[in-house]
């Protein structure tokens, strides 16, 4: 699921000013920390709703920033909330099918989604959380 934020032109202009005056690293830090802040409710709810299969799924829900190498069709900055499974190939494959069947259901088994509701329930406040955090950080840097 992709959340795209448009607008926020004043904050974007200030972010470009920080990039030009202070450096790209600082501007990127503001951007990605704001994205992480905006996605925190989604991430926490996905972990809280995860089915209990010895805690493996809950502990495997991760969040990280994506770079252009990670997603060839990405424009701008992005983060991902995903399930990262470890172990042998067979155990990962079995866990993947379990997660898929939980989220989408299977023949004779109704879906019990835990990832989609986390996004659906928190999409409304993600943009405002992003703008709030980005504004705070820009004000802190620019004084």
Tell me the span between the first and last alpha carbons.
36 Å
**Overall pLDDT level:** 78
Radius of gyration: 18 Å
Strand content: 5-15%
| Helix amount | 55-70%
Count of alpha and pi helical runs: 5
Oligomeric state of shown chains: single chain
> Structural class of the helices, strands and pairings?
mainly alpha
What is the string of SSEs from the N terminus onward? HHHEEHH
Shape by Cα distribution: elongated
Low-confidence stretches: none
Description:
This protein is 61% helix and 8% strand. A two-stranded antiparallel sheet has the order 1-2. Helix 1 (9-21) packs across helix 5 (116-142). The protein has helices at 9-21, 24-49, 56-60, 89-104, 116-142, and strands spanning 61-66, 78-83. The protein has 143 residues and is mostly helical.
């Amino acid at each position: 699921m992709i959340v795209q934020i448009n607008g926020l032109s004043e904050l974007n202009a200030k972010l470009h000013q920080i990039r030009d005056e202070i450096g790209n690293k600082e501007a990127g830090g503001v951007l990605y920390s704001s994205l992480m802040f905006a996605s925190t409710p989604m991430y926490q709810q996905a972990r809280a709703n995860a089915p209990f299969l010895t805690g493996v799924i809950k502990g495997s829900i991760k969040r990280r920033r994506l770079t252009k190498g990670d997603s060839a069709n990405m424009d701008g900055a992005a983060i991902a909330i995903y399930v990262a499974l470890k172990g042998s190939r067979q155990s990962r494959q079995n866990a993947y099918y379990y997660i898929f069947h939980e989220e989408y259901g299977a023949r004779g088994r109704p879906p019990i989604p835990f990832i989609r509701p986390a996004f659906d329930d928190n999409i409304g406040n993600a943009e405002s959380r992003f703008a709030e955090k980005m504004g705070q950080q820009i004000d802190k840097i620019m004084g």
